[in-house]
Hints:
Layout: H1 3-20, H2 24-44, H3 47-80, H4 83-117, H5 124-153, E1 158-161, E2 166-169, H6 172-176, H7 179-210, H8 214-249, H9 251-257, E3 270-277, E4 282-289, H10 292-298, H11 308-334, H12 341-350, H13 354-358, H14 372-380, H15 386-416, H16 423-431, H17 435-449, E5 454-456, E6 460-461, H18 471-502, H19 508-528
Antiparallel strand pairs: 1-2, 3-4, 5-6
Amino acid sequence: MDFDLVELSRLQFAMTAMYHFLFVPLTLGLSILVAIMETVYVMTNRPIWRQMTKFWGTLFGINFVLGVATGLTMEFQFGMNWSYYSHYVGDIFGAPLAIEGLMAFFLEATFVGLFFFGWEKLSKVQHMVVAWLVAIGSNFSALWILIANGWMQNPVGAEFNPDTMRMEMTSFFEVMFNEVAQAKFVHTVSAGYVTASVFVLGVSAWYLLKGRHIELARRSIAVASAFGLAASLSVVVLGDESGYSASHTQKMKLAAIEAMWETHPAPAPFTAIGFPDKEARETHYAIEIPWAMGLIGTRSLDTVIPGINDLVAEAEDKVRSGIIAYDALMQIRADRTGVSPEIRATFEEHSGDLGFAFLLKRYVDDPRDASEEQIVMAANDTIPGVAPLFWAFRLMVGLGFSFIAVMLYFFVTANFRTMQFPRWSLRLAVAVIPAPWIAAELGWFVAEYGRQPWTVDGVLPTALSVSHLSIADLLITLAGFVIFYTVLFIIEMGLMLKYIRKGPYMDVAETDAWNARHEARLRAPLATTPAE
């Protein structure tokens, strides 16, 4: 396999996925915030909340449309750029992907249309129900994507069929309730809630700095800070759940994130900072927090977290076991009807390690011809890039804790200090708007880069998953996608900034006048009642 082809295919998918995920988190979070605002409007009947719902709903709509447009390309890429992957695991991966397509393009899109065109057609309560269905549909659409991705991280509920040369689903229940998928779902949607909260907070702070739409901005800050504080706290808690899941489903990824070269006695320390050196297999100038990694990763004091070196040794054994499985598979393929039960039994015994034999395809056409040196090289290939993972994870975590601090400050100020925001805090809220997107992209980098060299962890190497395309085809399409997506991103930013500068459709003064008249009507009977 031409590794320039593999790397270009990975780069193309990474670029389209990262562009797409610029839109997804805001869609997930804004849908919930808009539904909350409309619920308050229905409960209070105050025009300011209808105004807020329409304004933030408009920004949600712009983001939603471009999110769908960029997501379509990713679905087609599986068949175009990753054809062998699609053939090998399509029976499992295709099911949740198809359900997601139905939810996104039929359920979710239908309710989005009702939300925008149903203001004058539906009652207040009916429209509020539609808003919540939009929010639920958006989040459930993400669920099925993350079930598919979670299966790639932890391939449960499936087995390899030597007669069809494909992975086949054995339990949809196991695929759906895969612990990695569930942990990824709640962590990802919580990150989307933080993204939307920071966005609403920042835009509202900008309005206060400009002295515009004061009432809308203050109420939006109150909602966003409360929702964002809960979401940012849940991101940390649910991120811990992802780490715990990785401790027994993706041990190499966890060890690489922590730059843990050697296995420490339980409980393992957490490396707060250091400089990983993959060549020397050590972390220079490491500052460690005793026991912390053991408690976070295993939730116990006596469970060992294996280091990279021990995991590589295990991988060597799995490569050798995989060669046995590969040899039995070739005999089954050569004589499908007359193969002995002993050969099939041998294959079944070692089939779980077949993917490790495929790692040898990088060095030799037939894994059975691999030398000891090549087996060691294939085992070493199971180590992902340690330094990028180490630093990406720590930057993501640092940003996560900063969101808690920002949201806590604005929540306390909005609820207990009569919304007296210093100008420095408002400028900070505006400046921090891009940070959740950076954290989200870093999170996906850790998840996907940390899985390498596998497309499906332990089952199918990335190098065997790609389509046989020319380098020229990939370079042209890569350039085309980057240009097209950049144009879409510029269009979205232009539209968002246009509507933010324009502000809500109804001037706040009109709302204040309505409030004054309403309060006057409430006081009028008391003023005219004769004194007893």
